[in-house]
């Protein structure tokens, strides 16, 4: 039986940030990973990476906010909500989206919750939602639609929203 892998590069990156390191976007290739069937990276479960990412988000961003909106009422937005600690779930004002079917339904019910009554999170159009946002939509996936919508709200990344995709 193989053991579960550890996302060492992700943990190194987070440790660097915790110790005052900074990250800068560079639009050129700086590192090349070589793919091979025996690479340790194949032992790292997607869920392990997800848990580390959510924990870092909660520590570095959500701990500073009293409330926020999750931008995506679809699968990724709902998964993020379910993955949050109970205290951070209570900070979620709403889920927002552009999909009229999701908005028309009006809410997301967290059916697996042990809470009674089950948490019901409003779902609203993005232009009615209140920042700050955690954005769970991949960039370049919407043909520029997400970017146009963000620009229309005159928000500042790192203040009014963070990407989590």
Quick structural overview:
With 165 residues, the chain is of the alpha/beta class. Helices cover 32% and strands 15% of the residues. GO terms for molecular function: glycosyltransferase activity.
Helical content class: 25-40%
Instruction: Enter the CATH topology name.
Output: Rossmann fold
Mean pLDDT: 91
Domain count: the total is 1
Stretches with pLDDT under 50, minimum 5 residues? none
Care to describe what's here?
The radius of gyration is 18 Å and the shape is globular. The chain has one domain (45-163): Rossmann fold. 32% of the residues lie in helices and 15% in strands. The protein is of the alpha/beta class and 165 residues long. α6 links the parallel β5 and β6. It has a six-stranded mixed sheet. It has helices spanning 8-18, 46-60, 75-83, 86-89, 100-105, 145-152, and strands at residues 68-71, 92-97, 107-109, 120-125, 133-135, 161-163. The mean pLDDT is 91.
């Amino acid at each position: 039986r193989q053991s579960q892998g550890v996302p060492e590069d992700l943990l190194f990156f987070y440790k660097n940030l915790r110790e005052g390191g900074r990250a800068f976007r560079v639009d050129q290739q700086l590192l090349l990973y070589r793919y091979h069937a025996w690479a340790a990276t194949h032992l790292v479960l997607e869920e392990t990476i997800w848990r580390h990412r959510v924990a870092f988000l909660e520590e570095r961003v959500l701990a500073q906010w009293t409330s926020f909106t999750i931008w995506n009422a679809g699968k990724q937005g709902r998964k993020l909500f379910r993955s949050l600690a109970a205290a951070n779930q209570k900070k979620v004002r709403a889920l927002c989206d552009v999909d009229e079917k999701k908005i028309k339904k009006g809410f997301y019910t967290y059916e697996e919750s042990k809470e009674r009554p089950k948490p019901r999170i409003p779902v609203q159009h993005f232009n009615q939602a209140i920042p700050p946002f955690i954005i769970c939509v991949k960039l370049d996936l919407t043909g520029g639609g997400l970017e146009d919508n963000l620009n229309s709200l005159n928000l500042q990344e790192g203040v009014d929203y963070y990407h989590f995709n």
